[in-house]
Amino acid sequence: QRTSCEKCRRPLRVCWCSYLPDTPVKINGKIIILQHPDEEKRNLKTGPMLFHGMTSGQCLIFYGKKFPSAKHQGLKEMLEEPHTYVLYPGQQSKCITDISHTHPQGESYNLVLIDGTWQQAKSMYFHSPFLHSLPQVSLPELGPSLYVIRTQPSEYCLSTVESAALAMSIMEKDKSIVDKLVHPLKALCTFQLKYGAVEHQDKVTLLELGQYRKPVGKRTMKFLRQTA
């Protein structure tokens, strides 16, 4: 049996803990991750990179498919705090850059991220009416994700750690946050590619090239086109 790291729970030869920030990232707020149970089971999840890369108590992870529920102690109270935003693109969302310009200096804030596949995230948001009362924010238009070992819906979709890091860098007006928090992700991808993983193109590109092997329904196709 392979020896695993107690922190990241990865085999020691592919442990990314040494790539975490020397000094944990500290922000004037909290990151609240709502994680789908299937995402919790994934070996290549990025939520723990945020949890271990930030000051204790500033990144909180709650598990489930509907939020908040009775098992999520303290979550409802946090979601009711002023300046709490859910990072979820949509017609009602505002660019987080605009939010950062109007956010009162020195005031705390909460950023809520839904962690799962895009279809899971969509379902979790739909089945969590409480989240609908929170202001929606979205990220500026982006380039390809660094998470090259996992297929993204489109080239503009980012992993949880990338999304959170970019959102924090904008709210804190500190670009160095991104490099500090995505360093373990770069290491993870390097390890996986070294041991046989291959780089993944996004689903939209694969569909356009006729190389996506799984059956795609009309609703899924429409959703993928919307994220492109």
UniProtKB/TrEMBL annotation:
The entry's keywords: S-adenosyl-L-methionine, Transferase, tRNA processing
Catalyzed reactions: a uridine in tRNA + S-adenosyl-L-methionine = a 3-[(3S)-3-amino-3-carboxypropyl]uridine in tRNA + S-methyl-5'-thioadenosine + H(+)
GO molecular function, one term: tRNA-uridine aminocarboxypropyltransferase activity
Keyword S-adenosyl-L-methionine: yes
Alphabetical list of Pfam families matching this protein: DTW
GO BP of this protein: tRNA processing
EC number assigned by the record: 2.5.1.25
Lineage top rank: taxon: Eukaryota
Domain DTW: 1-197
Xref: InterPro entries: DTW (IPR005636), DTWD2/TAPT (IPR039262)
Entry keyword Nucleotidyltransferase: no
Similarity-based family: Belongs to the TDD superfamily. DTWD2 family.
Protein name: tRNA-uridine aminocarboxypropyltransferase
